[in-house]
Design brief:
The protein has 13 helices and ten strands. The structure holds guanosine-5'-triphosphate. Guanosine-5'-triphosphate (GTP) binds next to α1. This is GPN-loop GTPase 2.
């Protein structure tokens, strides 16, 4: 079983810098790392690349040949990669024995929240090569300086989580720059906990320019709150403490921590982790379309005892019509 990260996020959010920093950090603690560049628009790579999509297809060639812009070109490249997944599988083969994999993806957000090509690529790799991958979704901390942009970042995180159905960690990147953006409307915990967005609505309401969007903003915030899935951690590339913390989350999220447990890991389809004060909490989200079986409940109990919170998240219809099992427990 091979573990790794799918590094995604909007353009310029710091994906390539993260892959470089994380690979150096993991190497320092003794893990073999392979960074896979799947962004055909990545011209200057700061890391040593184990596999490079440019050996298969170049964005520039696609744009010239098919008269496409950069966005259409990237969709084409991902479709092409999906069709030629054998190429990627064969390139990954030498690393799947003992390496940790970091996938550096393009920054076009529709690829992760709308189109199916990237999701299919990831699913195929996971099945064929028995990979355990976690999505690291980077969002520039700059968005916290504007409550309206922050709401859109939350919606993007939510739709990406639901679309990819991977263990998922949202990260506010470039947190070292946050003070340079001026005084934030709320302290940082507010932005990372994503608990009560009514404060955000109230803040937006103070600005007369937002008056006509009041109802829309309220309803968008309610969507994020109703799902209750999004929370965020923060990260700065030069901060080793953040990297250590993130690594802890990652090992939990892709089940590295329970790799020795029985084969029941396949039951989990989505997972969220959260840090509150000094305790680390873990939320396991079991996306089910039916009432959990006895065996699944048993798994939940065991995870609760060992790692923290486990929570059943079921299909909306089922949740409304029957009693939701939503139990939480403190980490031991
Ligand atoms: N201060 C600071 N700058 C960062 C950090 N992470 C990334 N950057 C800078 O942000 C810029 C964009 O970083 P990239 O790593 O190229 O971002 P990307 O998401 O790969 O960009 P695309 O490939 O265009 O989607 C670069 O100038 C980085 O040096 C960070 O943690 N702190």
């Amino acid at each position: 079983m091979v573990f790794g990260q799918v590094v995604i996020g909007p353009p310029g959010s710091g994906k390539t810098t993260y892959c470089n920093g994380m690979s150096q950090f993991l190497k320092l603690i003794g893990r073999k790392v392979a960074v896979i560049n799947l962004d055909p628009a990545n011209d200057a790579l700061p890391y040593e690349c184990a596999v490079n999509i440019e050996d298969l297809i170049k964005l520039e060639d696609v744009m010239n040949e098919h008269s496409l812009g950069p966005n259409g070109g990237l969709v084409y490249c991902m479709d092409y990669l999906q069709k030629n997944i054998d190429w990627l599988e064969s390139k990954l083969m030498p690393f799947i024995k003992d390496h940790y994999l970091l996938f550096d993806f393009p920054g076009q957000v529709e690829l992760f929240s709308v189109h199916t090509n990237v999701r299919n690529i990831i699913n195929k790799l996971m099945k064929k090569l028995d990979l355990r991958l976690t999505a690291i979704h980077l969002v520039d901390a700059h968005l916290c300086s504007d409550p309206g942009k922050y709401v859109s970042a939350l919606l993007l995180s939510l739709s990406t989580m639901i679309h990819l159905e991977l263990p998922h960690i949202n990260v506010l990147s470039k947190i070292d720059l946050i003070e340079s953006y001026g005084k934030l409307a709320f302290n940082l915990d507010f932005y990372t906990d994503v608990q009560d967005l009514s404060y955000l609505q109230y803040h937006l309401d103070q600005d007369p320019r937002h008056a006509k969007y009041r109802k829309l903003t309220k309803e968008l915030c309610e969507v994020v709150e109703d799902y209750g899935l999004v929370n965020v951690t923060s990260f700065a590339i030069d901060d080793s403490e953040f990297k250590r913390k993130l690594r802890k989350y990652l090992n939990k999220s892709n089940f590295y921590v329970i790799a020795h447990m029985d084969g029941s890991r396949d039951k989990y389809s989505c997972l969220v982790v959260k840090d509150t004060d000094s305790d680390t909490y873990l939320t396991l989200v079991f996306k089910l379309e039916k009432r959990p079986t006895t065996e699944e409940r048993d798994i939940e109990e065991r995870i609760q005892l060992r790692f923290g919170i486990a929570r059943w998240f079921v299909d909306e219809k089922w949740r409304k019509s029957t009693d939701t099992v939503d139990r939480t427990a403190r980490s031991r």
